[in-house]
Amino acid sequence: MKHIKRVFVANRGEIALRIVNACDELGLETVVGTSDADRNGLAARRADRSVCIGPAPASESYLRDDVVVQAALGTDCDAIHPGYGFLSESPKLAARARENGLAFIGPPPEVMELSGDKLRARAEAARAGVPVLPGQEIAANQKAHKAADQIGYPLLVKAAGGGGGRGIKLARDRDELDNLLSLARSEAGAAFGDERLYLERFVSSARHVEVQIAADEPGAVVHLGERDCSVQRRYQKVIEEAPAPNLDPATRNALAAEAVAFAKAIGYRNLGTVEFVVDADTGEHFFLEINCRIQVEHPVTEAVTGRDLVDLQLHIADGEPLGFAQKDVLFDGHAIECRLNAEDVARGFMPSPGTLSLFSVPDLLALRVDTHLCAGATIPPYYDSLMAKLIAHAEGRDATIDVLLEALEDLDVEGVETNRALLISVLAHDDFRRGAVSTDWLERAIA
Amino acid sequence: MALSDEDVREILRIIDESTLTELQIETEGFSLHVRRGGGDVEASGRPRVRPVPKSETPRHPPGGPEASASPPARESENDGLVTITAPMLGTFYRAESPGKPPFVDVGERVEPDTIVCIIEVMKMMNSVTAGMSGTIAAVVPDNAELVEYGQPLFRVEPA
Predict the structure, then answer these.
(1) What is the CATH number of domain B45-158?
(2) Residue A293 annotated to the active site
(3) pLDDT digits 0-9 by tens, A64-91
(4) Helix extents (H) in A75-216
(5) Could you say which of B72, B91, B124 has the minimum Cβ distance to residue A66?
(6) Based on the structure, what is the number of domains in chain A?
(7) What would the pLDDT profile of B112-141 be if each residue is shown by its tens digit?
(8) How far apart are CA A229 and CA A239, in angstroms?
(9) Could you tell me the CATH number of the domain that includes residue A69?
């Protein structure tokens, strides 16, 4: 590494630890900024230094871009890694870091602005020749009926400032559309500070397939294959895998090529993910959005490509060229990740914070476990409930599923409720085994 | 039993400086019930922090909204001293600007509203008040040092 010597980790949990470990391997020093609740977390203890950036609520600590930059400067860091969630897609943080001479490990703020504006991103995708779902912006006071009739019902009402599954409503007919439009507008204003809405065709049987891309500072872009994240509950991913099962090769190639074309068109830098919806009935695919961060599910791509994505992020942010071409990206085997959460499935997936009296994941050859927890650790109530990511990598999909089932069956966890039983029932389900579930499958299956 | 204004002030002072949050005294013909900070007993008697624009003198902080960081509690030590901790991460400044005398020094008396230091976060100057009455026994960080949330700033001998 030429320029980056010390990295400020502006995150918590397993991803903070993941970043600390990646920096360690590169000989980079790390400073973890923790909230008051995470002072004794594993990431803070493993890092060269930790500083407490504020009280437990994220709004007063992990979401304060001013405090994060001040902390990075005050601890002589030269780069900020934002992880995922929190400030990871904040153009404000990226801009503030740049203004203060810090490398932001992610795309430039201008790209984040564009990506965060779903309407602009849609328009740019269409301009780059990427198929987008039929849709149209609906200005305030504008009659939506004509646009809606052209798109056809059912349709989605989406907030331009939304994304990641937030700010989406389904209208099955004209009456429903009339009823929810003004509410959707005020909700969008309140949640995203942006009242703009647009209508988009609803794909009733949809698969969520996303393409991992990497772009260096000189502007070279490659893809690292796709991931299928169709097992979802309320737009939150539960199980992810690479490659996407039963995806026809023409679609696979088209998705990858379009993701690269789009990234080039918008001047993307560093790692990102282009999300698509694939219509399970017709096989058509459409652009959804681009995510400007390392994803929770990045390990499945690491498993099948043999490349360390956080390491790649650091090298790109340091100004290095990718050092490999598309033809050098090879794929091997199948990988599946499941997210073990501290939640009470029986009580509406209510988060289940607490202290782990027991936590032990079996040590299996084909299994990788990304976690910041061990027996005795506390899961605070302030943040998401992700406990661990279990990633299996094997020759074929069935063998991969079997590794995860063995790991989940033999997992010891006491002190909090978890979704383990749900994960086991999904992995063992015939529909999942056959490999083509759609995004509404899990909710129908557990209803 | 007749109470003078002076008596009431004295009672309030004693309560103010104690760790009590609520006090009820009842004697013949006299009843007094005092509670700190109205409904929110947690919030009283703690250091307060207000954003201060750079141009303005911290002695007259604007009446704008308080910084969102909730001030940490004072911590009592075994030696009887009370610690004022940093209500936010930032750069610790003992004086309004370089060359000016420090807001407070060892041996000086402070009242709850006395500004004891400034914490800078990205050019935003936040003045920190003592939140208690007493005498400064020690200044913990060096001037212009990065302080973390909750880090000890001053040790105070309560009056």
Answers:
(1) 2.40.50.100
(2) yes
(3) 999 999 999 999 999 999 999 999 999 9
(4) 91-99, 109-116, 118-127, 145-151, 174-192
(5) B124
(6) 3
(7) 999 999 999 999 999 999 999 999 999 999
(8) 6
(9) 3.40.50.20
